[in-house]
Amino acid sequence: MTHGNHDVLIIGGGVAGLVLALEIADRRRVTLLRPASDDLGASRWAQGGIAAVLSPSDDFDAHIADTLVAGDGLCDEAAVRFTVENGPAAIEWLLSLGVPFTPDSSPDAGYPYHLTREGGHGARRIIHAADATGLAVMETLQAKVAAHPAIQVLDDLTAIGLIDDIAGRCRGARCLDSQGRLHELLASDTVLATGGASGLYRHTTSPHPASGEGMLMGAELGAELRNLEFQQFHPTCLYDPQGSPFLISEAVRGEGGRLLNVQGERFMPALDSRAELAPRDIVARAIDAEMQRTGSDHVLLDIRHLGGDAIRHHFPTIHAHCADRGLDILREPIPVVPAAHYSCGGLATDLAGATTVPGLYAIGEVACTGLHGANRMASNSLLECLVFARSCAVALTHRNNPDDSAELRSLSAGSQRADPQALDEIRQRMRRVMSANVAIVRRDAGLTEAAEALDELQQALAPLRDVCAPSTELAGLWQALRLAQITVASARARRESRGLHFNPDCPDHAQGIPQPSRMYLADLN
Fold first, then answer.
1. What is residue 136's three-state secondary structure?
2. Whole-prediction pTM value?
3. Does the annotation count 280 as an active-site position?
4. How would CATH label the architecture of 2-230+344-398?
5. Could you tell me the EC number(s) of this protein (predicted)?
């Protein structure tokens, strides 16, 4: 079934997609594809806040310098400056919508709202809504989107791929409804806001992480993928083998939390002068090494010394959640473990979110803008969502009408029903392979083993694609598996250790000017 006449089609309803919808809807008609599962996506679980230069004692150059250091030589400095300099206006826009950021009523406050500090930042510049910033921002944006007459929200369709024409232009998306019926949504411009690829791993900081589906959708049309080897593992996810994932915000360390091994010994000061506030790649590797040294499956994050009043004030969500799991963080340290958290790589875009495919844009974690380089600094992610969604809206407002006369490419598919159990088994095997060989520390032998194992899984899945009818499970698994293969190829190609990519077989930085990795789906074929 073909549904034409869509103007701007946005796929994904996290912060990036919602911001773009609101910013463009007064000038163009918007169709927002937002399945119910988006309520459980990464945006809602962003606890810490949004980094921006807001205090009179802070400045753009300091934020830029901190970001460049965290990115370990691979940031695009123009993208960093663009993001940082547009940050304050983006925050003011959120405030105008009524986002309930935490105020600062102290007499010496230089800014009306409380600013905290997180790893890699040399100043307090993280504006937040207690310890549930993502939730506060999402609820505000969703209410505004629901009330806007020019935004059509479709919550009963899931995109399984993009539509292109013989001229190479993106023309919309193919979707399935809850009954498995295929719908083609043709659009003048299509924007991916589908999130990252943490779901390629067994343990993540989000209960329902994306697995790079949107990245692969763009790659299937020929879009460039960049820096996929830089997968960030958040240092502190609550260690609870029996419970669902729960992130312990970096702001906990920003307010003075200390990392201890299971023997009660603090280990970060001996490794880095910034101690617990070193960039995430350094802290995650340190925790991983300490766990291996002590033979433990977690470390401890201690905030008891902050006092009950401060803990309840700054971290009410974390305090309540841990209490529900039987953990009193006022009296005992929090068991934590690193978990897959954020994809620094993705679809390569310019400063307006345009990919290398005409008519296709990407914003948020699905995109690689050059901001993060080899390692994302804390709370620059929501900042990137805001700034690039707003710049994408400006570009879409001023773009010329495209030529949509070229013939569309067709989709062929079988009619059998894929076995859900067989698909789930392949997905779990893929996650085990990625977690064992392509995680915080990678080695040449493990990467080779991963490539071979993923090739075997692809060969097992490929026949099902040929004979089975389209389904969200089959399409999503195929996209995740192909992206995992490209991720491994990117990791094998980088013959150095940099940022989030640490390989003891090539532990040093490569000589010369570091370059981003550029990959295309065709590189696997």
1. helix
2. 0.93
3. yes
4. 3-Layer(bba) Sandwich (3.50)
5. 1.4.3.16
